[in-house]
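Progress report, Aim 2. The chain analyzed during this reporting quarter is listed below.
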Amino acid sequence: MTAELSEAGEEFLSWLAVERGRAGNTVVAYRRDLASYEAWLLERGVSLGEVTDADVESYVGYLRSSGRRPTSVARALSAVRSLHRFLVDEGALDADPTGDVASPRVPQGIPKALAEDEVAALLEAVTGDDPGARRDRALLEVLYGTGLRISEAVGLRLSDVDLDAHTMRVLGKGSKERVVPVGRYARSALGAWLAPAGRGAMVPLRWARRGDAEAVFLNRRGGRLTRQGAWAIVRHYGERVGLGGRLTPHVLRHSCATHMLDHGADIRVVQELLGHASIATTQLYTKVSPERLRTVYDAAHPRARKR
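Predicted structure tokens for the chain:
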């Protein structure tokens, strides 16, 4: 059932879809949040043109009291802000009532990196020497060994990989290029995959799409491995070793960064490796659990425990 909105709300959603090119799922999420907002205003006899900052604050309080999570409240407020700013830009409102309303603070959780022995078990779970096994092994080794995002891994081209120089060129967010080192295990796995008995055995008689011929990772039909296909590979081996829902491609990226920092890597080096624009993002990986903090404290502080 489609949620009903005011004429102004419908115009805003049309603008999002047509002018901003937002995806269908995004527009549906905006519709849901705005329908809830407009229904709340209607119950109080307040029109969109009469909304004040106090009304918006009250709405945020209502969302919190109804048990919504901070991330959900923040998303709903973002939709409300976008609507009012659109109305101001269109001349339908003189001022934006959300301008002075603070966004809910969304707590950042500690990244859930795998333990090193869990990563080892995962990488050892790929058995066999057929083309599929070679590809899967190379993909997992690259994701953990370089910390690439899943989109960066499936976007790799053959010309990006230089096994002799132990490096690969990566196109990251914002089309920013970076060069990352390729470690011994990832290099070995990539070499086996890029050999005639690996990737060569998956090359089709005719490429279906332009660009597939340059793709490092292929699917079994000979096309470029998609993001969804790579996700399925990671999930398959995660379930094989009992990691289940804990394992995602991003968890491997978290694990790469966390394990490097655990072993003394400089945080700015990790920032460069991962392609973070801000070191504040990389600093999330420096957070440790209370249990790990206590363990390190007990081992390192001279007065932490009896000798």
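Residues 58 and 64 are 10 Å apart (CA to CA). The beta strands are 161-162, 167-171, 177-181. These observations will guide the mutagenesis work planned for the next reporting period.
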